[in-house]
């Protein structure tokens, strides 16, 4: 006696349109994930360098003049006087959604020939830009503490910087060279950022990084998960779309 039996099988059939889409998107998703991991490593390296520099003894003006040394984030302790000029308001600095400025004042160390540009922190500004904030400076000889700020790259500007024509000046980016040209005096080439609680400090918030390493790592996981999901959909579609029947006879 012969019995007919039907056996179902599933053989993979490639969905060429979906495969093409996967080929286009997958390298980009993987590249974005790898880039986020690299950014996380860069931020961790930066944070480690900051901690190391902060643990070193503070520099006076003589120590600051050694520009061959890595001065980024080095602590500074200076004794001298604030100057009425130069005064710079760095434009378009937002804090908690509010418009304002970072205020940079000239500081003359007792033992120095150069003017040191000291960023005193943030102050709220007039959104209509009708007037600049009036910020009196402490007078007399005083001691200030802070750290050296070294930009990691050239900030983007819509136009080439030009020397200020009057004080106080509004600038998009602090350029010590342009300030020196306008002031007609020697200016130290790096910015000093005041510590919170230091004399003449305003609202102080100096974020080391704009995004934490953990957040970069989280974004990397998301990109890699999207890449895995895309490959998974391609495989699932290949099997689900190719179900067929195969007949066998047995005696």
Main traits of this protein?
251 residues, alpha+beta, 2 domains, five-stranded mixed β-barrel, two-stranded antiparallel sheet, 26% strand, disordered N terminus
Beta-strand proportion: 25-35%
Structural class: alpha+beta
The number of distinct helices, counting runs of at least 4 residues, comes to 4
Shape: elongated
Query: Largest beta sheet: what is the strand line-up?
Result: 2-3-4-7-5
What string gives the helices and strands in order? EHHEEEEEHEHE
Query: What's the main sheet like?
Result: 5 strands, mixed, barrel
Mean pLDDT: 86
Please report the total strand number as a whole number.
Answer: 8
Residue stretches low in confidence (pLDDT < 50, at least 5 long) are 1-7, 244-251
Helix content: 25-40%
Q: How far is it from the N-terminal to the C-terminal residue, by CA?
A: 6 Å
Number of domains: 2
What does the radius of gyration come to? 30 Å
Describe the secondary structure blueprint for this structure.
Elements: E1 3-10, H1 16-54, H2 61-64, E2 75-90, E3 100-109, E4 116-124, E5 142-149, E6 169-171, H3 176-183, E7 191-194, H4 213-240, E8 243-250
Parallel strand pairs: 2-6, 4-7
Antiparallel strand pairs: 1-8, 2-3, 2-5, 3-4, 5-7
Helix pairs in contact: 1-4
């Amino acid at each position: 006696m012969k019995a007919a039996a039907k056996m179902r099988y599933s053989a993979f059939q490639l969905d060429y349109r979906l495969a093409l889409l996967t080929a286009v998107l997958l390298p980009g998703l993987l590249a974005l994930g790898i880039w986020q991991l690299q950014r996380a490593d860069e931020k961790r390296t930066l944070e480690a360098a900051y901690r190391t520099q902060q643990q070193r003894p503070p520099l006076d003006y003589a120590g600051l003049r050694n520009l061959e040394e890595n001065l980024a984030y080095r602590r500074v302790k200076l004794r001298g006087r604030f100057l009425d000029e130069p005064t710079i308001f760095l434009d378009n600095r937002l804090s908690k959604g509010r418009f304002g400025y970072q205020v940079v004042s000239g500081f003359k160390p007792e033992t120095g020939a150069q003017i040191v540009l000291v960023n005193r922190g943030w102050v709220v500004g007039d959104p209509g830009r009708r007037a600049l904030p009036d910020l009196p400076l402490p007078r007399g000889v005083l001691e200030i503490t802070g750290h050296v700020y070294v930009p990691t790259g050239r900030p983007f500007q819509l136009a080439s910087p030009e020397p200020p024509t009057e004080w106080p000046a509004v600038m998009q980016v602090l350029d010590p060279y342009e300030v020196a040209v306008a002031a007609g005096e020697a200016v130290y080439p790096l910015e000093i950022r005041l510590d919170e609680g230091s004399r003449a400090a305003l609202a102080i918030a100096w974020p080391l990084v704009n995004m934490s390493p953990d957040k970069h790592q989280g974004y990397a996981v998301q990109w890699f998960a999207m890449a895995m999901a895309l490959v998974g959909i391609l495989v699932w579609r290949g099997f689900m779309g190719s179900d067929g029947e195969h007949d066998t006879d047995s005696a």
